[in-house]
Model the fold of this input.
Amino acid sequence: MDRPPPPSSLSVSGDVRRLRSEPRESMFLLATVRRPRGVDVAVKVRNLSPGGMMAECPSGFVRGEAVQIDLRGIGTVAGKVAWTASGRIGVQFDEPVDHRRARVKLGDVPSPPVLQHRGTTWRPAVR
Done:
């Protein structure tokens, strides 16, 4: 005889359970969350997976709110706020992303050009 699952304070659908089982990358990444009828909010992404992200944010969001997130290396991603708690939000993306593109190794980023000193410096009004 099958027993129903134990009651919980948080109802989780099968889709969300599947997304939570996907690999997540722990990280510290600054991103911008855009609201359709509001101001842009700077957030700190703490983990990222193909199906969503968890971020620290200073502003209150509402569960189910549609948002767009600008993520480094990935671009703009559409999604919905899945949960909010204690200054953090969870966002479920509308389409899966390649979350590994957000993590760029320092060796993969080109170094800025180094200026060469010519040995003489001419500065007007300085003797």
